[in-house]
Specification:
This protein is α/β, with parallel strands linked by helices. The longest helix is centred in the C-terminal third of the chain and has 32 residues. 28% of the residues are buried.
């Protein structure tokens, strides 16, 4: 019999844990009794760990991985996947924006298409006009900058085979974006559209989204560095042409105003230099972080039967 592992993270999730567990257990019971549920407490400040802990007496197949602090959603998910033992692993957020009942559809799709990963794709983006337009622009930017194509409007929820998960958790970058890792790991993958709900607010504000965008680009693409090189070449050619033009005009005795063009040039090239140094600095900072060899996450305690049923 195929064992199914469910992996979900907890962060400000106290209000959703009970319903998530009820619906997830009901969905799993439709297929098998051989399952486990792995919840990763990512240093949640709202008592999510205590609420989840109350389920340990009612659900012996539940394990709670308590991290020592908040490490971030992506690292918490990867830690949960590393603790999963099932032949199939169902990754899902615990806030119920992604319905647990998707497991049925994903199992059917995986069996019909013989793929290693079935992932959710939002049928329509949530949020206001600014959020939707911003998301579209960010995706177009990523699509142009990355060497791999990340599916548009993909979601966290996905069903994965053991072989795929084992390959995925081999990635140990400290600074990364999990969306790129999902794609770069390879294997046969298939997207399934679904209607994603909304809980009214998100812990991902504009600052978090910008950081995630930078992480995605600098973790998987060297194109910004090549772009700086091409800009430098174009600037060099332009300066040579401009120098020749100035020399010719000087020999002809033409009067040049000088001051405005000088100020504009200083501002332009000064800004270009600072921007280029900043981009290179982002890559250097990643080298600095990766060479330290620090733990990916720190597990404070694992609650529940470690051996499992």
């Amino acid at each position: 019999m195929t064992k199914i592992s469910v992996v979900a993270t907890l962060y400000n999730s106290a209000a959703y844990v009970d319903e998530f567990m009820q619906r997830m257990r009901a969905e799993l019971g439709r297929f098998t009794d051989d399952y486990e549920i792995v919840l990763v407490d990512d240093g949640s400040p709202d008592g999510s760990l205590a609420v989840a802990g109350e389920w340990l007496a009612r659900e012996p197949r539940l394990r709670i991985v308590e991290l020592s602090r908040n490490f971030g959603h992506h690292k918490a998910m990867m830690t949960g996947l590393a603790h999963a033992r099932g032949d199939l692993v169902f990754l899902i957020d615990s806030d119920l924006e992604e319905p647990p009942e998707l497991l049925s559809r994903f199992l059917a799709e995986m069996k019909a298409e013989d793929v290693d990963v079935v992932y959710g794709v939002q049928s329509s983006r949530k949020g206001g006009v600014v959020e939707r337009v911003g998301g579209q622009l960010a995706w177009r930017f990523l699509d142009a900058m990355l060497p791999v194509r990340i599916p548009k409007d993909h979601s966290t929820v996905r069903l994965m085979t053991r072989d795929y998960v084992s390959a995925l958790v081999e990635h140990r970058e400290q600074k990364t974006a999990i969306g790129g890792l999902w794609v770069m790991t390879g294997f046969a993958q298939r997207g399934v559209e679904f209607d994603k709900g909304s809980r009214g607010s998100s812990s991902y504000n504009l600052g978090h989204r910008l950081v995630a965008l930078l992480d995605s680009v600098t973790s998987f693409s060297e194109r910004p560095l090549f772009l700086i090189f091409y800009i430098g070449c174009a600037t060099l050619v332009t300066s040579v042409v401009a120098g020749i033009v100035v020399l010719v005009l000087s020999l002809r005795g033409s009067v040049l105003a000088g001051w405005p063009s000088t100020i504009v040039s200083i501002w332009f090239f000064g800004g270009l230099i600072i921007f280029s140094i900043g981009v290179v600095g982002l890559y250097v900072s990643r080298i600095f972080i990766e060479t330290k060899g620090r733990p990916y996450t720190v597990v404070r305690r694992v609650h529940g039967a470690e051996d499992g049923p």
